Amino acid sequence: MIFAVTNRLPEPAVDLLREAGEVRIDGREQAIPRADLLALVEGAEAVLTLLHDRVDEELLTAAGPQLRCVANVAVGNDNVEVEAAERRRIVVTNTPGVLDDATADLTMALILATTRRLAEGDRLVRSGEPWSWGMGFMLGSSLQGKRLGIVGLGGIGTRVAERARAFGMEIAYHSRHPSPAGAELGAERLSLPDLLAGSDVVSLHCPLTPQTHHLVGVEELAAMKPSAVLVNAARGPIVDEAALAAALAEGGIAAAGLDVFEREPEVEPGLLGLDNAVLTPHLGSATVETRTAMAELAARNAISVLRGQGPLTPVTAQ
Predict the structure, then answer these.
(1) Average pLDDT over residues 272-282
(2) Is 8 tagged catalytic?
(3) What tens digit of pLDDT does each residue of 131-151 get?
(4) Which of 213, 123, 205 has its CA nearest to residue 161?
(5) Which CATH number fits domain 2-98+287-315: 3.40.50.1110, 3.10.180.10, 3.40.50.720, 3.80.10.10?
(6) Exposed (0-12), middle (13-18) or buried (19+): which is 139, by Cβ within 10 Å?
(7) Which end of the chain is more exposed for a tag (fewer CB within 10 A), N or C?
(8) Is 184 a catalytic residue?
(9) Marked catalytic residue, from 235, 262, 268, 291
(10) Catalytic residue among 147, 282, 291, 300
């Protein structure tokens, strides 16, 4: 078995691969140049990719006809042309489930940071500017009794809902199909326009597809309450970033918390100077335990496919 790994992974995952076969790994932390990527995958039977690696016809051709598995170390697969892989009978896998709690924790952190103005307060203290406690000083908003509207009540969205209920929030959700978890949580399923209009916090947890690209744009932001908060810990292009920057600057909505960006790692310049935007560098799954679990699941997927035992967590074209 020959495995190509496009970036440094936690050692427990690499050890699994080495026990099963030959491992070629690029040890850099960031995305490697395209030419290096194409050279790395040549002759591999399985490729372990990250969300910034574009897996398309060019890469599949560069790998060669022996390629049998693309194991994406991510819950999403928007960087992989799954149909192209299927035409070549290449199995595509991802890493669902193992990052749900970590991403839900980060989402709640963004909700709290935006509603309680934590990042703004931190900047004020560090600036050295004088400040004094007062009854009207840096007031935020509470979560108790407020409505959280979740777009995409899958694994991560469900974990966010569970946490939000502990804060006393009412839950509503929008998804293509009714969710059993939604019923268990007592969450109301709404159309997207109704969810946007009635929610105090809107949190995005849907996959990035052609249908969800710019799902939240000028019209959708205008439909939200002026006091509402938007949180995105899914994929950047789900939100029209320029439209969001304008809405925040003009008071169309109160605040936004973003862990992902439309042209990552670039950020819409209009967001950078706004005190009501909390911006984090794609930290949703960034715990030692979660990243290790993701990498190990991807390794087990690749090994299982090459052994003829089938994928553990397969991805199919929509």
Answers:
(1) 97
(2) no
(3) 999 999 999 999 999 999 999
(4) 205
(5) 3.40.50.720
(6) exposed
(7) C
(8) no
(9) 235
(10) 282
